[in-house]
Amino acid sequence: MTFRRLILAMLFATAASPIAAQDVPAPAPQATAAGDQTDDGGLTGSVSDENEWQDLGIAITTFATDRDAPTQTNAGSTAQLGQAISQVIASDLKNNGLFKPSGPGGLPQPSLPQVQMPDYPTWKGMGTDMLVQGFVKAGADGQLTVGCYLYDVALSRQLTKAGWVFSASDWRRAAHKCSDLVYSRLSGESPFFDSKIAYIAETGPKDHRMKRLAIMDSDGANHRYLTSGQAMALTPRYSPDYSKILYLSYLNGQPSIYVYDLATDTQKLIARTGNPTFAPRWSPDGKWVLYSMAKSGTTDIYRISSAGGGTPQQLTQGPGINIGGSYSPDGSQIVFESDRSGSQQVYVMNADGSNQRRISFFGGRAATPEWSPRGDQIAFTHIVGNLRIAVMSPSGGGLRYLTDSWQDEAPTWSPNGRIVQFFRTAKGSGQASIWQVDLTGRNERRLPTPVGASDPAWGPIRP
Amino acid sequence: MALALRKEEGLGLAVAIAAHAALVAVLLLHPHAAPVVTPPERITVTISDEVAPTSTSPQPRSEAASSVAPELGEPQQEQAEPSPPEPEAAPAPQDPAPPKPTPPRPTPPKVEQPAPRPEPRKVERPAPRPVPKPTAKPKPPTPTVTKPAPRPVEQPQAKPQAKPQARPQPATRPQAQPARPAAAKPTTRAPSNQPGARPASAKGPAKPVTKPGGSRIGSDFLAGVTGGQSTNRAPAAQPAASIGPAVKASLASAISRQLKPKWQAPQGPGAEELVTILSFNLNRDGSLAGTPQVVRQLGIDDLNRNQAARHAEQAVRAVQLAAPFDLPKEYYDAWKRVSAFRFDKRLSQ
To answer: CB B306 to CB A190 under 8 A?
Structure first.
């Protein structure tokens, strides 16, 4: 029976897909026909939005629950959890810069039936534009079911909805998923809230700083130190499946590349050559690791299997310092930094090391390039006096500065390629902190970390 | 030497001299004027993007300004004049009201003829049907009703004035008459006149009290409709040949004004480059007919591609929110379809 249903469902899906496919391009022929002669006798005109960019007002109500059941979370019962989840959503959306969330405090609290049928007149009366509602239900086995609904109040219309089942300890992920739902529906972009960040936590005085590997959620919650700080850790990178973290460790003063397995809390040595090694990076499929190694006066980029062992393959052959490869999302190209022309500049080569060419011609120096997960941009540190975060297209055009501070460096991309994270070093004190800015450059904010932070690495979106 | 010439030589010489003299004379007398190439007159060229052989004036016939009441009164007198003298006309209809008004008014047949024509055009069919009937019926009551009110006032003063005015009116009548039926049917006045006219015999006194001016219209709505109703319904009855660019521009800006508070471009990298062009249809009450369609989008690049759909959605939303549009009804033909409305974001720079 279920098998038959499955077949029917698949048949339906395949039958529906061509229809759906036709629906999309249908306006196109009309568009060209009408585009050639825009005046088919009807009225023409234009309207522009000359206001400053306005944040979209979103009301987020406390998530309703069917019964106030205790949960195995630090938030408490499902009713308290409902409030905590909507607070996390409000905080996510607020820090994004595109939205102006309100609530859950000070807003009417919907009952469970109202979650799916909001009282539009009331919300219209309050001047609400968008409305986020949801529910939390505790399952028998400690699982939480969280539903999330987004409504356009002005049009009295439901825009989208979704539901998830998480273990109780992952309740924040449910909130992030709901934030992602709202964000992607209202911005058109891919989600990114439900992701994690690895970074280097810095403590201690400037000349004797302890650097530890740490991870946290994209909003700074669930913070956790991974290494003790006995060995200085640098340049972490999440593996594409979040199972491991690749980083550089100066254990006993010797630079070594380790893979930290998050599931088992064990480490595996990838490369220790005796020579200075830097900047380990994953390939998009997680099978390869790039790193740079200085040997006999030149520094070159090597590739080695992430499983460990094997012979490193040298991708660049000097001259000068070649360092810090970052794969394009499809794995076909690598962007890296080289001073072969006399100063640090950004170069691109094929994944096998062929066809190396310089793409940055902006004056000054360009360092630490990082390919966007969307593939359409490359973020880098532009050094003209100050260090600034900038982006350019993979062909080397369209330079745009995202920040303007004294020392901003080491950009890393959000999973959707719309936000760049970097660390900013304060002038004088040398205190480092992690900041992020969106591609418009308008929304810049500091990420909350318990101690000083540098070398952020944003992981991909979680499934 | 001359003697040496022979006779025929002398003759030839004489002929030659004479011919030369004639040639010189011809040349002198008919000096061939050199063909003077006169440069053509300079023409001032104006480049116009809108050239129409049709009138774009909203009201090609500008009779509307005339006041309603006097016109109405005069045609009655005028019509009354030909048959009997004016003073007589006043009492005459009163006594033999039914017979007299009918003959002097050849207009009713005219009215009846045009009346059925517009019927199919106009939506309100029940209204026109009674029109021919009441036209015949009200004639008796109308003079009775109207005459007492206006005539005592107008007659002493208006007689001399009315006559000259009445004469030119025939010229206007042919124009006005076609307008009457069309205007009278859909208008609110027409129904008010008709029902009023039917029971006029009973309600007659009430009319002049309530509507001193309106009663005149009611009494002679055949002639009176032109002035009064052309102001209201002229575009419907006799629309301008076409609606000009100035009207269209102000209609577009009226729509733009109403959209502006609702239109909010989405934020995002490169979003200011996006332009969405929508088309939508409007009902006569200004509400939206169907859903706005995206005609096309401009300015899409790799950076803002993800936002294009959202941009279009916001534009559609703006139209839906602004929806019942407040636009002048007489130009409905111009704004019933908005074929390309442009939504963009311009940062004030």
So the answer is: yes
A45 vs B334: CB contact, 8 Å cut-off? no
The residues pairing with A438 across neighbouring beta strands, listed in sequence order, are A419
Beta-carbon contacts of A97 under 8 Å, excluding residues fewer than 6 positions away, are A55, A438, A442, A443, A445
Strands (E), A140-253: 143-152, 157-167, 196-203, 210-217, 224-225, 232-238, 244-251
* Strands A452-458 and A254-261, sheet pairing: unpaired
Average pLDDT for residues A411-421, to the nearest whole number?
90
Q: Is B264 on the interface with A (CB under 8 A)?
A: yes
Q: Is a pLDDT exceeding 60 seen at residue B296?
A: yes
Question: Which amino acid, one-letter code, is at B202?
Answer: A
Distance CA A251, CA A51 (A): 55
Q: How long a stretch of residues is chain B?
A: 349
DSSP H or E segment with residue A43:
strand A43-48
Q: Do B269 and A418 touch (CB under 8 A)?
A: yes
* Chain A residues whose beta carbon lies within 8 Å of the beta carbon of residue B259: 47
Inter-chain touch B268–A46, beta carbons under 8 Å:
no
- For the cut 60, the answer to whether the pLDDT of residue A68 exceeds it is yes
Model pLDDT for residues A94-150, shown as the tens digit of each residue: 887 788 888 788 888 888 888 888 888 888 888 788 899 999 888 878 788 899 999
- The tens digit of pLDDT for each residue in B169-193 reads 444 344 444 434 433 344 344 344 4
Q: CA-nearest residue of chain B to A57?
A: B264
Domains in chain B with CATH codes: 68-237 (no CATH), 245-344 (3.30.1150.10)
Specify the pLDDT at position A37.
42
Here the tokens at position A439 are 């591609």
| Percentage of the residues of chain A whose pLDDT score is greater than 70 | 91
Q: Which residues of A touch B280 (CB under 8 A)?
A: none
Lowest mean pLDDT among A51-55, A301-305, A318-322, A432-436: A51-55
**Mean of pLDDT values over A37-55:** 71
Kindly calculate the radius of gyration of chain A based on its CA atoms and give it in whole angstroms.
25
User: How would you list the strands of the sheet with A232-238, edge to edge?
Assistant: A232-238, A244-251, A254-261, A266-271
Q: In the structure, what pLDDT confidence band is assigned to residue A35 with cuts at 50, 70 and 90?
A: very low
For residue B133, which amino acid is it? K
pLDDT, average across residues A351-375: 89
Q: How far is CA B184 from CA A45, B101, B201, in A?
A: 36, 21, 21
In the DSSP assignment, the letter for residue A177 is H
Q: Which candidate, A214, A206, A77, places its Cα nearest to that of A137? A: A77
Write down all domains in chain A, each with its CATH number in brackets.
Answer: 56-187 (3.40.50.10070), 196-458 (2.120.10.30)
Which residue, B347, B319, B311, is CA-closest to A50? B347
User: A285 to each of A275, A327, A429, how far by Cα in Å?
Assistant: 27, 10, 40
